[in-house]
Design a protein that fits this description.
Belongs to the globin family. Its EC number is 1.14.12.17. This is Nitric oxide dioxygenase. Pfam families: Globin. GO terms for molecular function: FAD binding; heme binding; metal ion binding; nitric oxide dioxygenase NAD(P)H activity; oxygen binding; oxygen carrier activity. This protein is mainly α. The chain is globular, with a radius of gyration of 14 Å. It has a single domain, classed as Orthogonal Bundle (Globin-like). It has helices spanning about 5-35, 45-50, 50-65, 75-85, 95-110. The longest helix has about 30 residues, at about 5-35.
Length: about 120
Amino acid sequence: MLTDQTIATVKATAPILEQHGELLTRHFYKRMFEKNPEVGPLFNRTNQEKGSQQKALAAAICAYAANIDNLEVLGGAVELIAQKHASLQIQPEHYPIVGENLLASIREVLGERRD
């Protein structure tokens, strides 16, 4: 269960994520593939090169931040993501790799930005 303070903090990040989301996700994927090349084959190279994967992740992160106090509205999108991950045979051990690289990317790209 998230505290009211955590919810407010995440919601407050929505504008900065909307503004810098694609920069963040481009950095994230580059970082993750360099540090964890074993997950590279799980991702569609064409989508990476075209930038569609980065845009999709940026949109998902923004939607989560903006709706953290009303996650039910994201149910359909989360279901689609879950089905896609299942079809790609994403395993539980892959999620910490994504989480670690995403959080590091947030620190590296966004830092203490307030714009």
